[in-house]
Structure formats: C-alpha cells, structure tokens
Design a protein that fits this description.
This protein is α+β, with helices and mostly antiparallel strands. It has helices at residues 3-9, 51-56; strands spanning 31-35, 43-45, 58-61, 72-76, 88-98. 13% of the residues lie in helices and 28% in strands. The protein is globular, with a radius of gyration of 13 Å.
Length: 99
C-alpha cells in the first residue's frame, strides 16, 4: 500500500452514514475510489465483485447529483487503468448523472 492508498482509506464508504461508529473502510474488504462528481472522495465496497462487474461501472443513488433526490451518479473505471490487489484496487470516475 502506498501513501495515496493510505490517504484514501481515511475516507468514508458509500452507503455508510457519516455519523456511524465506523464509517470508514474495513480490513479485508476491497474498495474502488470514487473520483469526481457528487461522491468524490468516497470509497465503494466492491468486495466479491467479478472483474466484469467492475468493468461495467455503477449508478449510485445520491441526492447530491444533478437530479437531486432519487437521482444517480454514474461512475466507471477507465479502460486499461491497472488494478491492484490492495484495499483500494481501482478508481471509478464520474461520467455523468441520470434521473
């Protein structure tokens, strides 16, 4: 794990309440770092995801995006970007919002 991974691990995990007792990452889990958009800086738990599921990206519910309550923020990996075996194995980049 390098310094960038350590900084990301200080972040909060998507779906965990900010005032939860342990909103950060857990040991032995695998995360994607969310980059850009309304969820920038959060981690997404991708433990157990198959590689093709990671390749598909995600549409995450958020009230912070362009469409407000009920909207989704779209995040995708960049083709060819390497994945690691560390706790933060990849990055998902904001690609837009959808209702």
């Amino acid at each position: 794990m390098d310094a960038d991974d350590e900084q990301l691990l200080r972040g909060r995990v998507y779906g965990h309440d900010h005032d939860a007792p342990h909103p950060g990452p857990l040991p032995h889990q695998t995360y994607a770092a969310l980059v850009g958009g309304p969820l920038d800086g959060l981690l997404l738990d991708i433990t157990g995801w198959r590689p093709e599921e990671v390749d598909d990206g995600v549409a995450l519910i958020t009230e912070l995006g362009q469409f407000g309550a009920g909207g989704r923020a779209l995040y995708d990996p960049r083709p060819g970007e390497p994945r690691t075996s560390g706790p933060v194995s990849c990055r998902f980049y904001h690609s837009g919002d959808t209702p």
